[in-house]
Design a protein that fits this description.
By secondary structure, the protein is an alpha+beta fold. About 45% of the residues lie in helices and about 15% in strands.
Length: about 70
Amino acid sequence: PGDRLFIFTDGIEVCFTGEKVLDTAVWHEELRQRAAMKTADILAEFDQQLESASGSLYAKDDLTIIVAEMPV
């Protein structure tokens, strides 16, 4: 498919690393592992993962992902 641009807040990185310290490499690997998936499927999977995370109903930081998808 075409290229995608993921814009996200630091709260997303914290959720996926499970640490209070940002680790961009972990989040980038999460994205790389899903490169062949459709954008909607990636976001649905992330949503499910975030919903099941400890404290997800009362997140300590904002959780925002915006995706711009460029058609082929």
